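Forwarding the complex inputs:
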Amino acid sequence: MFIHDHMTPSPVTVTPEQTVAEAIDILQRYNIRHLPVVDEQGVLQGILSDRDLRSARPSTVAQSKERGTVEEKVNKTPVSVLMTRDCLFLVPHATLDDALLLFQSRKIGALPVVNEEEKVVGVFTTADLMNAYRDLFGLGAKGSVLVSIEDNQDPQALSKLVRIMEEKQVQFTRLVRAEGTDKRRAMIYLRINTYNVRSVHKALEADGFVVHVPQKTP
Amino acid sequence: MENEPAITLITDPAFCRHDTGGGDHPEAPERMQVITDRLMQGHLAGRIRTFAPRPATRAQLLTFHTEGWLFRFEEAVLSGRTYIDHPDNQVGYESFDIATLSAGAGLVGVDRIERQPGTVVFCQTRPPGHHAEPNQPYGFCFFNNCVIAARYWQQEYSRRRVCVFDFDAHHGNGIQTAFEQEADTAYISIHEHPSFSYPGTGWAEDKGVGPGKGTILNLPLPPGAGAEQVLRLFPKIRNFLDTIRPDALIVGAGFDAHRQDDMSGLAFTVDLYRRLGNFVTELARDYTQGRVLSILEGGYFLEKLGVCVEAYLSGLVETDE
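Prediction (whole assembly, two chains):
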């Protein structure tokens, strides 16, 4: 659940004096979209996104004469001019929830991770968050299948499910109860490791659970 | 009729000796018996010639599997273990030897096809293979029969470009593992969508990695899908093969997508297996000069497994045209 387990450690950084041209080159070379800006001690100064860089460059539809001049000027500009100062950051023991809430409320795609000395030790992006939740939830884990079960609001539902799995000797790795909303029914998700998925469905149905699978064609 | 193509069946009574513990394990020895009964009593009986497999050599198994897995598998069965890594993978004392023989069926098939191009070959084997990974069994599979046959075809006969077409209800994760980083080999799989089915792999987005980019074609189907949805995939498969240009085709022929087979939520009919047989023969004619080898994978509903296999074989030898 902690950021230090899911961040990209020792990320590529730039210093405030480096130019826009250098920063663009780094983003392209490493195929990344965010660059923390640090001083010589590695202390966070700001963050630079590919969007900051793109919006600083002249439009591709601008007049060709002006365009060359402006572009040259921009390329030589130090990144300190374009970077976002006083940017948000995470600490290594922040949680995935902290990151999720920040990403959603501030509509940002990446956060630098800094230690107690404010030195950058990592970067955490929305892609890292997706990978982290993917691992937590077991999506795509080889040899596993997710079973979606209607939550019947029985307080004992989870323990009953565990008992059925134990009786059937079916290994499982995730048991998640998700509350319903206006748009979504309350569900229980069970990630099982067995070839014989239908026999699990049958066992659950025999105990009164409703398993969700897409409607069969007639 | 004299000109009717014969069917070469490669099988061995020994396949029944891979003991999966009785009880209700679906990958049961009876699977072999119901197929044999149907083929020998049905309308194809007079056209079937049966040949014995030979065990794959250690070197042939190592074209996909690791030395570590071979030792671990052999030791597990000899020490009396009843399953390996997961209770799905039931084994008995003879399972290592029988799996080796199962992996060798495809090799005999390749030899026969190369000796006489156009030979229709079906390997009636167990244990199945397409889930087996280099160092691990998965989903009743211990050695990856299709991959081992593909490697043999490449090495012994210089058919570099081998494509596996797998219509088992489950994605053949082991075959994808073997091929996804290679330019020469390709894998096409029709299977129940990984969100609803074992082994949770086979996403349409997986298309191959690095030099293997574009060599994987995963065609997941929603639960309940049958003939209509499958027939719609045929042009996609042809388009894919237009770019792959295979030298040889191996079919992972699983029959667990039948509507009454509980091991998947798919709803294939017996007649769809006949049409799949037609399609495979057309592909072999159009792309591989008749070089096609079919190897049994899954299929667990004993009342229908025999007729499904028979329908597929009928389709292989009796094209619609």
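The two ends of chain A are 44 Å apart (CA to CA).
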